[in-house]
Amino acid sequence: MMGLMPSEETRTLTSTTVTDPAAQDTAEADASPTRAWRRRLLVVAIVLAALNLRPAITSLGALLEEVRDGLGMSGSVAGLLTSVPPLCFAVFGVTAPRLARRFGAGAVVCAGMAAITAGLLIRPYAGGTPGFLAASALALMGIAVSNVLMPVIVKRWFPDRVGSMTGLYSMALACGTAVAAAATVPLTDALGGDWQPGLTVWAALAAAAVLPWLPFVRNGERTGAARGASARGAAGREAAGRGASAREAAEQGAPAREAADRDASARGASAEAGAGTAGAERPALRITRSRTAWALAVFFGLQATAAYITMGWVAQIFRDAGVAAGTAGVLLAVIMAMGIPLAFVIPRVATRLPSQGPIVLVLGVCGLAGYAGLYFAPAGGAWLWALLLGVSNCAFPLALTMVGMRARTGSGVAQLSAFAQSTGYLISIPGPLLVGVLYQHSGGWGLPIALMAALMVPQMLVGVLAGRDRTVEDEAAAR
What we know:
The protein has helices at residues 6-19, 21-30, 36-51, 55-62, 64-71, 75-93, 96-103, 105-122, 129-157, 162-190, 195-200, 203-210, 214-218, 224-251, 256-280, 291-320, 325-337, 339-352, 357-376, 382-392, 395-405, 410-428, 430-442, 446-466, 472-478. It is 81% helix and 0% strand. By secondary structure, the protein is mainly α.
């Protein structure tokens, strides 16, 4: 499953080794036998972390009616609750690259898993809506930083397997999302029927995800910048040694040609070292100058809007149409489970295409068909609508894949990931809240579903723009 298609491997490896020396150093260091176990452990850590990036949200969606009754929430307040995830992702996600530079990406993700654990343990018993929101924000803070850093970790440790590792991570994310949606109601019934234990149980999965990240905290992460500095220092020392040898040979009467050749070698090595230093001192990428970065951010925001409306409200749509609570949870799980196979297939297909626009259009058409079904016959064709919405929901792994493809360097991926996700989640905040307000004031799901379908059109347009074959570094430098 982890194997790579030849064209994908060639494209990704060439891009990384030619244009990103830091990533190349990482790949070479991690290829050594003594560090192979860390790569294997990191695969486990990535999978466990991904499993925990959505249960805090979908478990709540499955029990939203019970939580609303227990805490006395109105439809508008429930809409606010479903808007908290993108708000937290926007606010906290932007801090992830800075935290990673200071503490290491592994340490930040480990802390994120611990925050998820604490938030899920506290929120059912926080006492009232404000405490519930605050504890949810703690868990979502951990999810936010992990969301941003996963593409960075994949690019740094697996530069020749970006598509495959993104697919694996996305599959695990979809699996965790689906299992939480399907199992929360049965678990709640098995634990006595109270919604509080049904939400708390997911803290155990988050606690398990902390463990494999601990070695990456203890051993630390030698960043690409540090490796680059070491390489430049070694080049400088080698250049100085060659220069001294050339001068010594000349003073001792060595042939002029030999001395000149050695001196030329010294100048070449010095030039290489100087070029490395100049590259290190290059100003930071001005990501906001890239039109592709903006298109990707808007695409990310609109697909996140659809995803969080789906996770927060679709189970309730089915329940209001007469579907039993347990079945509605399973339908939500089906939507999320579609991402398990497709999250692996879509990134691999996307990396083989020069433009990802066709994939964007296919996903958008499936979304429009699913919303039409929810509008006209929500209960009659519930399973078909769930399948179609599940396919449409796979815009998330596509967006993650495009983040890795639209930047050449590891630092460019980090900046693009933070910008696209933080800006995108800001864009997605009003969507779930507006759905709750429309539902409360209209007394039905007609207007909210029409809104969801209308947002799919601009998502398709900006997705085509974001999928064009270009990099943010080139666009920023050209403006």
